[in-house]
Protein backbone atom coordinates (compact mmCIF):
# COMPACT_ATOMS: atom_id res chain seq x y z
CA UNK A 1 0.00 0.00 0.00
CA UNK A 2 1.23 3.47 -0.93
CA UNK A 3 2.15 5.56 2.11
CA UNK A 4 3.31 9.10 2.77
CA UNK A 5 4.48 11.09 5.79
CA UNK A 6 3.34 14.72 6.09
CA UNK A 7 3.16 17.49 8.73
CA UNK A 8 -0.45 18.53 8.56
CA UNK A 9 -3.43 16.66 7.18
CA UNK A 10 -6.77 18.39 6.69
CA UNK A 11 -9.81 16.19 6.11
CA UNK A 12 -12.72 17.99 4.45
CA UNK A 13 -13.26 20.78 1.95
CA UNK A 14 -15.99 23.07 3.29
CA UNK A 15 -15.31 26.55 4.70
CA UNK A 16 -13.60 25.02 7.77
CA UNK A 17 -11.22 22.78 5.80
CA UNK A 18 -10.22 25.40 3.23
CA UNK A 19 -9.74 28.12 5.85
CA UNK A 20 -7.55 25.77 7.89
CA UNK A 21 -5.61 25.07 4.67
CA UNK A 22 -5.11 28.80 3.95
CA UNK A 23 -3.75 29.42 7.45
CA UNK A 24 -1.67 26.23 7.60
CA UNK A 25 -0.11 26.90 4.19
CA UNK A 26 0.78 30.47 5.15
CA UNK A 27 2.38 29.13 8.35
CA UNK A 28 4.55 26.83 6.22
CA UNK A 29 2.95 23.65 7.56
CA UNK A 30 2.69 22.24 4.00
CA UNK A 31 -0.88 21.07 4.51
CA UNK A 32 -2.39 18.29 2.45
CA UNK A 33 -6.17 18.51 2.18
CA UNK A 34 -8.40 15.62 1.14
CA UNK A 35 -11.71 16.87 -0.21
CA UNK A 36 -14.01 13.92 0.57
CA UNK A 37 -16.96 12.81 -1.52
CA UNK A 38 -18.48 16.28 -1.89
CA UNK A 39 -15.69 18.74 -2.74
CA UNK A 40 -16.72 22.15 -1.39
CA UNK A 41 -19.11 20.60 1.13
CA UNK A 42 -22.70 21.54 1.80
CA UNK A 43 -22.42 25.00 0.25
CA UNK A 44 -22.08 23.41 -3.16
CA UNK A 45 -25.72 22.33 -2.91
CA UNK A 46 -27.07 25.71 -1.96
CA UNK A 47 -27.89 28.80 -4.03
CA UNK A 48 -27.50 32.38 -2.91
CA UNK A 49 -25.37 33.10 0.16
CA UNK A 50 -26.19 36.56 1.44
CA UNK A 51 -24.66 36.43 4.88
CA UNK A 52 -20.98 35.67 4.24
CA UNK A 53 -19.11 38.89 4.98
CA UNK A 54 -17.04 40.29 2.14
CA UNK A 55 -19.48 39.48 -0.65
CA UNK A 56 -21.35 42.77 -0.74
CA UNK A 57 -23.77 41.57 -3.41
CA UNK A 58 -24.10 37.99 -2.20
CA UNK A 59 -22.58 34.98 -3.96
CA UNK A 60 -23.69 31.56 -5.18
CA UNK A 61 -22.60 28.80 -2.74
CA UNK A 62 -20.70 26.71 -5.36
CA UNK A 63 -18.91 29.82 -6.64
CA UNK A 64 -17.88 30.78 -3.11
CA UNK A 65 -16.39 27.35 -2.52
CA UNK A 66 -14.40 27.58 -5.76
CA UNK A 67 -13.03 30.89 -4.42
CA UNK A 68 -12.10 29.20 -1.12
CA UNK A 69 -10.34 26.38 -2.96
CA UNK A 70 -8.45 28.75 -5.27
CA UNK A 71 -7.28 30.82 -2.31
CA UNK A 72 -6.04 27.74 -0.44
CA UNK A 73 -4.27 26.47 -3.58
CA UNK A 74 -2.67 29.88 -4.21
CA UNK A 75 -1.24 29.81 -0.68
CA UNK A 76 0.34 26.44 -1.47
CA UNK A 77 -2.04 23.91 0.08
CA UNK A 78 -1.90 20.50 -1.62
CA UNK A 79 -5.56 19.83 -2.43
CA UNK A 80 -6.48 16.31 -3.43
CA UNK A 81 -9.57 14.32 -4.30
CA UNK A 82 -10.04 11.39 -1.90
CA UNK A 83 -12.01 10.14 1.06
CA UNK A 84 -10.60 9.32 4.50
CA UNK A 85 -11.97 5.86 5.28
CA UNK A 86 -10.14 4.75 8.46
CA UNK A 87 -7.92 6.24 11.14
CA UNK A 88 -5.53 5.08 13.81
CA UNK A 89 -4.93 7.85 16.33
CA UNK A 90 -3.15 5.65 18.92
CA UNK A 91 0.09 7.67 18.72
CA UNK A 92 1.66 10.32 16.50
CA UNK A 93 2.26 10.34 13.61
CA UNK A 94 -1.46 9.77 13.16
CA UNK A 95 -2.51 7.27 10.54
CA UNK A 96 -5.30 8.05 8.09
CA UNK A 97 -6.24 5.75 5.21
CA UNK A 98 -7.50 7.39 2.02
CA UNK A 99 -9.92 5.47 -0.23
CA UNK A 100 -8.75 2.33 1.61
CA UNK A 101 -5.67 2.13 -0.60
CA UNK A 102 -3.32 4.83 0.63
CA UNK A 103 -1.88 5.50 4.08
CA UNK A 104 -1.08 9.06 5.14
CA UNK A 105 0.88 9.58 8.37
CA UNK A 106 0.56 13.10 9.75
CA UNK A 107 2.08 14.93 12.71
CA UNK A 108 -1.16 16.87 13.13
CA UNK A 109 -4.67 16.23 11.81
CA UNK A 110 -7.45 18.78 11.34
CA UNK A 111 -10.88 17.19 10.97
CA UNK A 112 -13.36 19.29 9.00
CA UNK A 113 -15.63 16.58 7.63
CA UNK A 114 -18.89 18.51 8.11
CA UNK A 115 -22.35 17.04 8.33
CA UNK A 116 -24.76 15.26 5.95
CA UNK A 117 -28.50 15.26 5.37
CA UNK A 118 -30.73 13.12 7.60
CA UNK A 119 -33.43 10.83 6.21
CA UNK A 120 -36.82 9.82 7.61
CA UNK A 121 -35.94 6.12 7.53
CA UNK A 122 -38.88 4.89 5.45
CA UNK A 123 -38.36 1.91 3.16
CA UNK A 124 -40.06 3.78 0.31
CA UNK A 125 -37.79 6.78 0.83
CA UNK A 126 -34.72 4.62 0.31
CA UNK A 127 -36.20 2.67 -2.61
CA UNK A 128 -37.23 5.85 -4.47
CA UNK A 129 -34.10 7.85 -3.64
CA UNK A 130 -32.99 9.34 -6.94
CA UNK A 131 -36.37 8.47 -8.49
CA UNK A 132 -38.24 11.45 -7.10
CA UNK A 133 -36.92 11.40 -3.53
CA UNK A 134 -34.16 13.90 -2.77
CA UNK A 135 -32.52 15.71 0.14
CA UNK A 136 -31.50 18.67 -1.98
CA UNK A 137 -34.10 20.92 -3.55
CA UNK A 138 -31.47 23.10 -5.11
CA UNK A 139 -29.87 20.11 -6.85
CA UNK A 140 -33.02 18.34 -7.98
CA UNK A 141 -35.88 20.88 -7.98
CA UNK A 142 -35.26 21.54 -11.65
CA UNK A 143 -36.54 18.06 -12.56
CA UNK A 144 -39.99 18.90 -11.18
CA UNK A 145 -40.67 22.17 -12.96
CA UNK A 146 -44.39 22.84 -13.18
CA UNK A 147 -45.21 19.75 -11.08
CA UNK A 148 -46.52 19.16 -7.55
CA UNK A 149 -43.92 18.27 -4.94
CA UNK A 150 -43.76 17.76 -1.18
CA UNK A 151 -41.18 18.68 1.41
CA UNK A 152 -40.82 17.48 4.97
CA UNK A 153 -39.17 19.55 7.69
CA UNK A 154 -39.77 22.77 9.58
CA UNK A 155 -36.35 24.32 10.11
CA UNK A 156 -34.61 27.06 8.13
CA UNK A 157 -33.41 24.56 5.55
CA UNK A 158 -36.93 23.26 4.89
CA UNK A 159 -38.27 26.82 4.69
CA UNK A 160 -35.50 27.88 2.31
CA UNK A 161 -35.98 24.81 0.12
CA UNK A 162 -39.79 25.16 0.09
CA UNK A 163 -39.38 28.74 -1.12
CA UNK A 164 -36.91 27.63 -3.75
CA UNK A 165 -39.29 24.90 -4.96
CA UNK A 166 -42.25 27.30 -4.97
CA UNK A 167 -40.55 29.22 -7.78
CA UNK A 168 -40.22 26.11 -9.93
CA UNK A 169 -43.16 23.89 -9.04
CA UNK A 170 -46.92 24.36 -9.28
CA UNK A 171 -47.60 23.43 -5.63
CA UNK A 172 -45.34 22.63 -2.68
CA UNK A 173 -46.97 20.53 0.04
CA UNK A 174 -45.03 21.10 3.26
CA UNK A 175 -45.37 18.56 6.08
CA UNK A 176 -44.65 19.78 9.60
CA UNK A 177 -44.77 17.27 12.41
CA UNK A 178 -45.72 19.75 15.16
CA UNK A 179 -48.03 22.74 15.19
CA UNK A 180 -45.18 25.18 14.88
CA UNK A 181 -42.08 25.66 12.80
CA UNK A 182 -38.56 25.76 14.13
CA UNK A 183 -37.40 28.08 11.31
CA UNK A 184 -36.59 31.72 12.03
CA UNK A 185 -39.55 34.08 12.06
CA UNK A 186 -38.62 35.80 8.84
CA UNK A 187 -38.44 32.47 7.00
CA UNK A 188 -41.74 31.29 8.50
CA UNK A 189 -43.42 34.46 7.32
CA UNK A 190 -42.02 34.06 3.82
CA UNK A 191 -43.32 30.47 3.67
CA UNK A 192 -46.76 31.45 4.87
CA UNK A 193 -46.98 34.38 2.46
CA UNK A 194 -46.23 32.17 -0.53
CA UNK A 195 -49.53 31.18 -2.15
CA UNK A 196 -48.35 27.90 -3.70
CA UNK A 197 -46.85 26.49 -0.50
CA UNK A 198 -49.51 24.50 1.33
CA UNK A 199 -48.55 23.86 4.96
CA UNK A 200 -49.86 20.73 6.75
CA UNK A 201 -49.45 21.02 10.53
CA UNK A 202 -49.15 18.00 12.87
CA UNK A 203 -48.45 15.86 9.86
CA UNK A 204 -46.12 12.89 9.48
CA UNK A 205 -45.11 11.12 6.32
CA UNK A 206 -46.56 7.62 6.41
CA UNK A 207 -45.30 6.30 3.06
CA UNK A 208 -44.09 7.54 -0.30
CA UNK A 209 -45.99 5.72 -3.02
CA UNK A 210 -44.95 4.68 -6.52
CA UNK A 211 -43.34 1.70 -8.22
CA UNK A 212 -40.35 3.10 -10.07
CA UNK A 213 -40.91 6.77 -9.43
CA UNK A 214 -42.69 8.92 -6.87
CA UNK A 215 -46.40 9.15 -7.66
CA UNK A 216 -47.95 10.22 -4.37
CA UNK A 217 -47.40 10.46 -0.65
CA UNK A 218 -49.56 9.21 2.20
CA UNK A 219 -49.51 11.45 5.26
CA UNK A 220 -51.05 11.09 8.67
CA UNK A 221 -52.41 13.81 10.91
CA UNK A 222 -50.92 12.91 14.29
CA UNK A 223 -53.79 14.56 16.20
CA UNK A 224 -56.73 13.00 14.37
CA UNK A 225 -55.06 9.90 12.89
CA UNK A 226 -56.55 10.82 9.50
CA UNK A 227 -54.66 9.52 6.46
CA UNK A 228 -54.51 11.48 3.22
CA UNK A 229 -52.91 10.61 -0.11
CA UNK A 230 -51.57 13.50 -2.16
CA UNK A 231 -50.39 13.08 -5.77
CA UNK A 232 -46.85 14.41 -6.19
CA UNK A 233 -43.85 13.88 -8.47
CA UNK A 234 -41.05 14.84 -6.11
CA UNK A 235 -40.48 14.33 -2.39
CA UNK A 236 -37.85 16.41 -0.60
CA UNK A 237 -36.43 15.66 2.83
CA UNK A 238 -35.09 18.63 4.82
CA UNK A 239 -35.01 17.45 8.43
CA UNK A 240 -31.52 18.41 9.47
CA UNK A 241 -28.09 16.88 9.35
CA UNK A 242 -25.80 14.45 11.08
CA UNK A 243 -22.08 14.96 11.64
CA UNK A 244 -19.69 12.96 9.46
CA UNK A 245 -17.75 11.48 12.35
CA UNK A 246 -18.24 7.70 11.99
CA UNK A 247 -14.60 6.91 11.22
CA UNK A 248 -13.50 8.62 14.46
CA UNK A 249 -15.68 6.48 16.74
CA UNK A 250 -13.60 4.86 19.45
CA UNK A 251 -10.81 7.45 19.07
CA UNK A 252 -12.41 10.83 19.66
CA UNK A 253 -14.91 11.98 22.25
CA UNK A 254 -18.30 12.80 20.74
CA UNK A 255 -21.78 13.59 22.00
CA UNK A 256 -24.75 11.25 21.64
CA UNK A 257 -25.52 12.67 18.16
CA UNK A 258 -21.92 12.11 17.00
CA UNK A 259 -20.69 15.70 17.12
CA UNK A 260 -16.98 15.76 18.01
CA UNK A 261 -16.21 17.33 21.35
CA UNK A 262 -13.59 20.05 21.51
CA UNK A 263 -12.13 21.78 24.54
CA UNK A 264 -14.26 24.95 24.84
CA UNK A 265 -12.64 27.95 23.22
CA UNK A 266 -10.25 25.76 21.20
CA UNK A 267 -10.31 23.24 18.35
CA UNK A 268 -8.53 20.60 20.46
CA UNK A 269 -10.04 17.13 20.68
CA UNK A 270 -9.25 14.62 23.44
CA UNK A 271 -6.19 13.52 21.44
CA UNK A 272 -3.30 15.96 21.47
CA UNK A 273 -2.41 16.83 17.86
CA UNK A 274 -5.89 16.10 16.49
CA UNK A 275 -8.11 19.13 15.97
CA UNK A 276 -11.70 19.57 14.80
CA UNK A 277 -13.41 22.46 13.02
CA UNK A 278 -16.71 23.28 11.35
CA UNK A 279 -20.03 21.44 11.41
CA UNK A 280 -18.57 18.11 12.56
CA UNK A 281 -18.07 19.74 15.97
CA UNK A 282 -20.76 22.43 15.89
CA UNK A 283 -24.43 21.68 16.28
CA UNK A 284 -25.36 25.19 17.34
CA UNK A 285 -24.17 27.79 14.84
CA UNK A 286 -23.52 25.76 11.65
CA UNK A 287 -22.84 28.77 9.49
CA UNK A 288 -20.24 29.11 6.74
CA UNK A 289 -18.62 32.00 8.57
CA UNK A 290 -18.45 30.21 11.93
CA UNK A 291 -17.07 27.11 10.21
CA UNK A 292 -14.41 29.24 8.51
CA UNK A 293 -13.57 30.88 11.86
CA UNK A 294 -13.16 27.53 13.55
CA UNK A 295 -10.97 26.31 10.64
CA UNK A 296 -8.68 29.25 11.35
CA UNK A 297 -8.61 28.29 15.05
CA UNK A 298 -7.71 24.69 14.17
CA UNK A 299 -4.80 25.76 11.96
CA UNK A 300 -3.47 28.10 14.66
CA UNK A 301 -3.83 25.39 17.32
CA UNK A 302 -2.10 22.87 15.03
CA UNK A 303 0.71 25.31 14.31
CA UNK A 304 1.31 25.88 18.03
CA UNK A 305 1.28 22.15 18.63
CA UNK A 306 3.74 21.41 15.81
CA UNK A 307 6.11 24.24 16.69
CA UNK A 308 6.13 23.24 20.39
CA UNK A 309 7.28 19.80 19.20
CA UNK A 310 9.86 21.39 16.89
CA UNK A 311 8.16 19.91 13.84
CA UNK A 312 7.60 23.16 11.89
P1 LIG B 1 -32.98 21.91 12.10
O1 LIG B 1 -32.41 20.88 12.98
O2 LIG B 1 -33.00 23.34 12.51
O3 LIG B 1 -34.48 21.52 11.74
C1 LIG B 1 -34.86 20.23 11.40
C2 LIG B 1 -36.34 20.22 11.21
O4 LIG B 1 -36.74 18.94 10.75
C3 LIG B 1 -37.11 20.50 12.51
O5 LIG B 1 -38.16 21.36 12.26
C4 LIG B 1 -37.59 19.11 12.90
O6 LIG B 1 -38.85 19.13 13.55
C5 LIG B 1 -37.77 18.44 11.57
N1 LIG B 1 -37.62 16.99 11.69
C6 LIG B 1 -36.59 16.29 12.21
N2 LIG B 1 -36.81 14.97 12.13
C7 LIG B 1 -38.02 14.84 11.53
C8 LIG B 1 -38.80 13.73 11.16
N3 LIG B 1 -38.37 12.47 11.37
N4 LIG B 1 -40.01 13.96 10.60
C9 LIG B 1 -40.43 15.22 10.37
N5 LIG B 1 -39.74 16.32 10.68
C10 LIG B 1 -38.53 16.13 11.25
O7 LIG B 1 -32.19 21.71 10.69
P2 LIG B 1 -32.00 22.70 9.49
O8 LIG B 1 -31.22 21.90 8.52
O9 LIG B 1 -33.27 23.28 9.04
O10 LIG B 1 -31.08 23.86 10.04
C11 LIG B 1 -29.84 23.59 10.68
C12 LIG B 1 -29.23 24.89 11.17
O11 LIG B 1 -28.81 25.69 10.06
C13 LIG B 1 -30.18 25.74 11.99
O12 LIG B 1 -29.47 26.34 13.02
C14 LIG B 1 -30.66 26.76 10.99
O13 LIG B 1 -31.10 27.95 11.60
C15 LIG B 1 -29.44 26.98 10.13
N6 LIG B 1 -29.80 27.42 8.78
C16 LIG B 1 -29.75 28.76 8.50
C17 LIG B 1 -30.08 29.22 7.25
C18 LIG B 1 -29.99 30.69 7.01
O14 LIG B 1 -29.70 31.43 7.93
N7 LIG B 1 -30.21 31.14 5.80
C19 LIG B 1 -30.50 28.33 6.16
C20 LIG B 1 -30.55 26.94 6.56
C21 LIG B 1 -30.20 26.52 7.81
P3 LIG B 1 -39.03 19.69 15.05
O15 LIG B 1 -39.02 21.18 14.91
O16 LIG B 1 -40.36 19.14 15.40
O17 LIG B 1 -37.92 19.14 15.84
What labels describe this entry?
single chain; 312 residues; alpha/beta; FAD/NAD(P)-binding domain; 2 domains; seven-stranded mixed sheet; five-stranded parallel sheet; 7 helices; 19 strands; 24% helix; 28% strand; elongated; binds NADPH dihydro-nicotinamide-adenine-dinucleotide phosphate; oxidoreductase; FAD; EC 1.8.1.9
List the helices and strands and how they pair.
Elements: E1 2-11, H1 15-26, E2 32-34, E3 48-49, E4 59-60, H2 61-74, E5 78-80, E6 84-88, E7 94-98, E8 102-111, E9 115-117, H3 123-127, E10 133-134, H4 137-140, E11 148-152, H5 156-166, E12 171-175, H6 185-193, E13 197-200, E14 203-209, E15 216-221, E16 227-231, E17 234-237, E18 241-243, E19 274-276, H7 288-308
Parallel strand pairs: 1-2, 1-8, 2-5, 8-19, 10-17, 11-12, 11-17, 12-13
Antiparallel strand pairs: 3-4, 6-7, 7-8, 9-18, 14-15, 15-16
Helix pairs in contact: 1-2, 1-7, 5-6
The chain binds NADPH dihydro-nicotinamide-adenine-dinucleotide phosphate.
The site of NADPH dihydro-nicotinamide-adenine-dinucleotide phosphate has 16 residues, from helix 5.
Amino acid sequence: MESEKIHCLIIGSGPAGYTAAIYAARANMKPVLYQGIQPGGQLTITTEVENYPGYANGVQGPEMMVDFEKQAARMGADIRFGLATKVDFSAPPFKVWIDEDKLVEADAVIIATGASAKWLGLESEERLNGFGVSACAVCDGFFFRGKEVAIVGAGDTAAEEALYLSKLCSTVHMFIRREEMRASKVMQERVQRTPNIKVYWNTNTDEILGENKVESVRVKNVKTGDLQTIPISGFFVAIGHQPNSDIFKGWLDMDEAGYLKTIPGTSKTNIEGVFAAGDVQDKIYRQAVTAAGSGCMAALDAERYLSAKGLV
